[in-house]
Design a protein that fits this description.
It comes from Streptomyces mangrovisoli. GO terms for molecular function: transferase activity. InterPro entries: Kinase-like_dom_sf. This is Phosphotransferase. The structure is a single chain. This protein is an alpha+beta fold. The chain folds into two domains: 106 residues, Phosphorylase Kinase, domain 1, CATH 3.30.200; 209 residues, Alpha-Beta Complex (Aminoglycoside 3'-phosphotransferase, Chain: A, domain 2), CATH 3.90.1200.10. Helices cover 45% and strands 14% of the residues. It is built from eleven helices and ten strands. Strands 1-2-3-4-6-5 form a six-stranded mixed β-sheet, with helices on both faces. Strand 1, helix 1 and strand 2 form a beta-alpha-beta unit. The longest helix has 26 residues. The N and C termini lie far apart (49 Å).
């Protein structure tokens, strides 16, 4: 994939976004690195790469002979840890994640094998029962528990923190930065602050330690094998947070497809592995409600981390929208 080879560009809805790919030197270096890594694995390119440019990443699909395709990803500074985290996860939970072919930690680059069919594509092509979501969440919870002893290592790799005890201070920081642009928002957030501190204290005392939270576990971030075994990828939104915060996104997506009645069952399936530590179902369900609500704050922090320059009205509005979700009663 040398610089002179043609590529197809996909800018999606972000036609005017400036990305590293637009820098000639960066692009030459990236393409040379990909070519060298492909060759080091004894592979040869076989076709025109497709470059997907988004404000949060550069993603290149590279066809290779006999292996389908490989993927180059370049992360922005706010998620530069993703490649090294993925490599660490592959050592600790190889059945649940992709194993990178190469990682350049300093530049935030990684080269990944193809993971097969996306869960999202399976859902679009054929009827899929809620059982598939149950299998995904059961496997994901099992992986989280397996990874729990390595939380400190993940922090050392640069995974950002959104620990439960730190959330009130993070909330204050977001409000201070102008995330609440209107007087009414500021009033409501000020009134919410004592309750938020109480929720965080209760969740921190619930008996489940903070650990790795994927941050955006939807059907487009998961490969599947026979709708029974799943591979989770795209860890750029990950943080060290309460693990139950992972539940909001997949349960909400499943309910959109199958109706709200599947939510309680998915929650209970996810919680099954966590009962091994002695907590009762009632205690764990209460922790889910707290984590579900507080995950809105976690997502607001993640958004500003990935887009630190978003201090304009649009950026503040996006973050405020996430914070307003703190007022919504969790559906489970």
């Amino acid at each position: 994939m040398r610089d002179e080879a043609p590529v197809r560009l996909d800018r999606g809805r972000y036609q005017h976004a400036v990305t590293p790919w637009d820098d000639d030197e960066w692009r030459r270096d990236a393409r040379a690195w990909v070519a060298d890594c492909i060759a080091a694995h004894g592979l040869r390119t076989a076709g025109e790469p497709t470059v997907r440019l988004r404000p949060w990443s550069v993603l290149v699909r590279v066809p290779v002979e006999g292996a389908g395709r490989v993927w180059f990803k370049a992360n922005p500074p706010g998620s530069r840890f993703e490649g090294t985290l993925t490599a660490a996860l592959a050592r600790r939970a190889p059945d649940h994640v992709l194993r990178p072919l190469a990682v350049d930690a300093a530049r935030g680059w990684s080269l990944l094998p193809d993971g097969g069919e996306l869960f999202r594509d399976a859902l679009a092509l054929r009827p899929v029962a809620p059982d598939a979501w149950e299998a995904l969440l059961r496997q994901y919870a099992t992986m989280q528990r397996r990874l729990a002893p390595h939380t400190r290592q993940f922090e050392e790799l640069g995974v950002p923190g959104a620990r439960t005890a730190e959330l009130p201070a993070l909330f204050d920081e977001l409000v201070e930065r102008g995330t609440a642009p209107g007087r009414e928002d500021r009033r409501r957030f000020a009134e919410l602050r004592p309750r938020l501190a109480d929720w965080c204290a209760e969740l921190a005392a619930a008996g489940v330690e903070d650990g790795l939270d994927h941050g955006d576990l939807h059907e487009g971030q998961v490969f599947h094998r026979d709708l029974a075994r799943f591979t989770v990828f795209d860890w750029g939104d990950a943080a060290i947070a309460h693990p139950f915060m992972s539940l909001q996104v997949p349960v909400a997506r499943a309910c959109e497809r199958h109706g709200p009645e599947v939510g309680a069952r998915l929650r209970d399936v996810y919680l099954e592995p966590w009962t091994a530590d002695g907590a009762t179902g009632r205690e764990l369900r209460r922790a889910v409600r707290l984590a579900w609500r507080l995950s809105a704050l976690r997502r607001a922090c993640s958004w500003l981390r990935l887009f630190p320059g978003a201090a304009d009205a649009t950026g503040r509005a996006q973050s405020a929208e996430r914070l307003r979700e703190l007022f919504a009663e969790p559906p489970l």
